Amino acid sequence: MKIFDRTSTAAAMAFAGLIAAIKTIFTEGCQVPRRHIHALDSDDSAATLLIMPAWQKNRYLGIKHVTIYPENSQKYGLAGLHSTYTLFDANNGVPLAVLDGNVITCRRTAAASALAADYLARKDASKLLIVGSGNVARELAQAYAAVRKLSRVQIWNVRQDRAETLAEELRQQGFAAEAVGNLAEAVADNDIISCATLSGQPLVLRKWVKPGSHIDLIGSFKPDMRESDDAMFADTSVFVDTSEALDKSGDLLSPMAAGVFARENVQADLEALCQGRHSGRKSDDEITVYKAVGAASEDLAAAVLVYESQNGA
Q: What is the pLDDT of residues 53-73, one digit of tens each?
């Protein structure tokens, strides 16, 4: 059984190849049960275990295990989330590899958003606003650069110093990047707005969004998390990664409860886009919104890419 640490896992996941791998798995189809969520008996009252399986018949089976201990930072000076990914041969159940789940999650999340944007953002979209500055936010510029020619990247964060730090990192990577302080002005002045935060309150408001924009909402994966307001879903073209988003994300649950949006208003999921059952953006002035909560099929695609790149497949 192969062991891929953080460095070797990341090295095999260049975004062009990862985006293509995720597109392939959505095109081919994959068995993805709902994720298992277990509260743990721990001194950390919010400790949680997530188990996310996915498989393709006679090919590969994968399971991501995620442990969430919110009090880790305060108690031990440790990160609050850790994950590993175990890859098996689906023909016989033989374990093939253990990989760094944190790297897989960050990279595949950004890659899936870029894949969706390839269908949903205008072809001439070149100005990207990143809302947030965490681990996923750090991957977004490189991911979007694989599907659009970026002329500028702006970063907004609640803490301006962290936005400045990420802007400097991106400049070192060759992007024309800058931190911004006025979120409303930045939303109105960019073609793609990608949010990757843990916010519990709406950040990006519909009234700021100009026609033709693409809004990418990554962060809200629980009912009490929000990155946009209810109005964002009232008159826009809404897409999701999977139907789970409609059951888990506060960004969708709130406008549905308010009656401004309904499940049947979703235009398509990412699988339908990849399989050509929906053509994506229809006009240059359409506002598209993509809401993602993550899919285990994306993790499997990333793990297989890493494993096969090291085994000559």
A: 999 999 999 999 998 887 887
